[in-house]
Amino acid sequence: MAEMVNVRINGIETEVEKGTTILQLARKLNIYVPTLCAHPDLRQAGACRMCVVEVKGMRTLQSACSFPITSEMDIFTTTAKVRKVRRDILALLLKNHVGECQTCKRNGNCELQRLAAEFGLHDYLYGKRTERRYSVDDTGYAIVRDPDKCINCKRCVRTCSDIQAVGVLGTLYRGADTKVTTFMEKNIAETLCVNCGQCINRCPTGALTEKDATSAVWEALEDPNKHVVIQTAPAPRAAIGELFGLPAGTSMTKKMNTALRLMGFDRIFDTNTSADLTIMEEGTELLIKLKKVYIEGMSKDEAGLPGITSCSPGWIKWIEQFYPEYLPKLSTAKSPQQMFGALVKTYYAQKMGIDPANIVSVSLMPCTAKKFECERPEMRDSGYKDVDYVLTTRELGAMIKEAGIDLPNLPESEFDSPLGLGSGAGLIFGATGGVAEAAARTIWYIVTGENVPMKNLEVVPLRGFEGVKIATLPKIEKTAPGWEFMKGIVPKIAVAHGLANAKKLMDMLKAGELEDVFCIEVMACPGGCLGGGGQPQPTSPEIREARMKAIYEEDRHLPYRQSHENPYVHQLYEEFLGEPMGELSHKLLHTHYCRRSRRM
């Protein structure tokens, strides 16, 4: 049984488990303590000192986020001394925070700005530094760093190291010269950065933002010679409402379609269509690997088992850099974004009689790494750049506001044909475990000749936020002709989200602990795409949970819930692609990955 300690906080007597921090106690009792470095996803650092409190009998104020309660004590959070010190700390942070709030991307959603308003700091008590000490680093395709807006809270450092196991960011120097930067102060493009944007999601100010594509997209929309299409991924639909004051997890799919038409997009398509294609291609590829093992007698290593998903571009760059020896196990299937881009400038262009040179292909994604992915030289199999511009959820929200569109009160409208119908399987790609679950639904059909029974359609063991999940699926009792070798097999699937968890999973694979697993899904971001680096700020486990519920709820009400049921997918193969893993589908929908030098 846990040891309990008697505590008084602001005169309130309570009992807490020994080792609980003062901040945890305050939050439990709904006592407000301001913070800047604390974040629900991160270990405590005690870096900003905004959370100082007074403890009776101690001469100095204590940091509430890092002070563990080990004995009986009196704590005070609102004394004059506490308020004055917090105000002074905030004033000093503001003094060194260079940049105009009015033009900052975080204006109106900046934690430093919010605290300044709370403390009534309408003037700079200690003056304001106006000259820049550092240059803005916008050398990469995805992330922009402005060190002059950094307040040294080190959230980005802890995110990059603890959540993502990359470790690009750290601190240099001491005292007033302390600086969050990269190894040898290199530009972000010259580091191991995987462009996931998780640092952006946890930065309290505008020191980290995404590379902006809004101006380029507006320019395309205003060009009468351009045919501008947009594909929308599932995760932004469950999150964009947050930018308009709606609760996390409010589905805005059809209202967003209307907003995009009002903005001038010529066609609004559904990325879930190509997510279904991904399942057909990736699932077929996996089954070919299984045949090589069970029929041709290859070893699992030779056949490339377990097969590993390739939908997440942050994960792809990470494995290229850190575990390149496992690249042969990666699916060659492109991500849904890139499959869609290739089809827009081939199949769609031919069907509509439009010169692909005049098509501008835009994608709405929850992910900053998608900006990097669309620039990869491998992603031009259509003969053009398959995806021209990527907008994050935040960027589209800003564009909708700029256009004066009231998103929450718009009427609903549908996606356009012929690339506007996706199944529930494609939709759940937005959540960790969703790709694996979608694949399981269709592979079960191919192998058994029957759809997954409705009671088993939702593969619950693959869902949720556990860092590494290994799910055992039902034993295959009946097989379709040609798949008899699968009879009696009990399939196992492994899932990880967040790259620190991916590292655990890859180390398990290296140690031979995944011998019975035939498929591995990895998403770079916590929670999967719904926790992507381009999603609305702030982020927390509760917000990601609400977004996940919205995705699964929408899946339950769609007419098609398995990728192979999607009639548009059948039409694509009949009219254009031929068959999964066929010559044309392999040319347009597959790619290759290679050992990457530790640069951009």
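^ that was protein a. below is b, sequence first then the tokens
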Amino acid sequence: MTIFKSLLAGAAIGLAISTSPMAIAATPDNVLVVAMRIDDITTLDPAESFEFAGGDVSRNVYMKLVNFDPTDLDAGYKPEIAESWTVSDDGTTITFKIKEGLSFHSGNPVTAEDVEFSLQRAVLLNKTPSFILTQFGFDADNVAETIKAEGDTVTLTTDQPYATSFVLNCLTATIGGIVDKKTALTHEVDGDMGNEWLKTNSAGSGAYSVQAWNPSDSVVMTANPDYYRGTPAMTRVIIKHVQESASQRLQLERGDIDVARNLNPEDVAGISSVEGVKIVDELKGRLMYLSLNQQHPVLSKPKVREAFKYLIDYEGMTQSFLKGQYTVHQNFLPQTYLGASSENPFALNLEKAKALLEEAGVDGLELTVGVREAQERLEIAQSFQNNAAAAGIKINLTVGTGKQILGQYRARELDVYLGAWGPDYPDPHTNAGTFAFNPDNSKEANATGLLAWRNGWDTAGLTEKTAAAVIENDRAVRAKLYDDIQAEFRESSPFIVMAQQIEQNAMNEKVTNFSGGQAITSASYWQVTK
């Protein structure tokens, strides 16, 4: 018996399975079963987790100082473990007052000491997402003084005054999850602060605790009856790894699952007419883009960069093979982010592209484009390949795994890269600080985390403007700064942002209040009812 079957059986209610594809059956009333791709999960430790599916689990298990309310995502972050906060006159210290009466799944109270431990721990472990905190000047040498608990308060002292909204937005990321210090240290091995144990277990205070995780198979979470918002209606959440869209669709039609999260446009269209199924669209933060290597003697010419922006069939793609799952978007900030722009000035125009290439002195060009082996990316690449050929450019596609292609991109080895980018935290700096920021373009800098560096692009002054925007505390002024940066970026950068993702979740019509997190956060299961 698989872990999924045995745990579902443990709910003491069997599934009603329909043999007809025209009607939806039912999972247990108090169990939510979700099918999605979760093979990217490598750890459940909030100080280490940095994958999309892992973020969904963490959001439901770990509370944070501030967080997003799924019923009002547009309102931005709100207090969660923190009751309130104040900012020092010089803008470098934020003091959080911790709520009373909160408890971890273990029964231990949530204290300022737990907050101190969790944030210090994230810095000291120095795992992949640690940059979200260390960008404020926190490091192993100073963290004992810069993140400090006293009584029922915790102070964070940054290396310079940043926009308060920037700091708070970063604390809503997965790495901001507050861990039960006593439980973590009970399982400490060789000074790892419980990291090895927390890879496969949980020690949070959120709506759910992790009952079991079987990599590339399933995650099972059990409701926390003492959750401060109230006991969740779904006493158990089971997330199944189902790789293929067709398999997710079939399982939804049979009633084996409640929600299918990775259907392709064809399966969405096919299942939308099935009785008992509804499709819920959510605009996500993921962007599809092309990037042109600025170390290439031809691609570094401004007229060539401009020409390539007219070789993309933005509308044609989003109205055909990307229909319903992407919308045209030509800016590095996703819609719904502070400072996001709705300006989309480019369209497929072969004659204009040819004229620009001629002005640049380009007569025949052969390039290699790296693309991950994923259906929608390959289709985008083939569309671009055809348009480029019509303009006299031969495109050779190098197709590989994500790891292979990203390795080449990060090493500046590709002429052109076609890929996707998703925000790391819900603040405009998350994308501005990688697309338009590159303080040291030298090979020695090896700043592979910066997309501008990967492209060998010195940003033509946008680095300084991005640095100014991240410390601006006036919200309206800050939004205008990002709008201005994006206007320059659209015209001069070697990036061609093409589209923003729309997640189409198919689900049993009885499922209500399911939120995938939209563009700024992850899924919330505690509000779901059936």
